[in-house]
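Quick note —
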Amino acid sequence: MPIKITVLNNGPLKIEGIEEAFQLCDASGATFDLAGKTTIFLCRCGASQKKPFCDGAHRTCNFVSEVRADANK
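Predicted structure written out below.
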């Protein structure tokens, strides 16, 4: 299954289909432990205490973002 990234309305990025070949790295190149995970959620609101992962903080910080794909691009 290919990796699928979904921009959730007023919430995080949902990344599905993660396999062993997938890595998530910080700015220094160190990798986050994703062992056993096939889906992760990445924070977009900036309020998460578990960055880069979502902890649901978008629900209490009034984060608003609804993104639609533009078929013309």
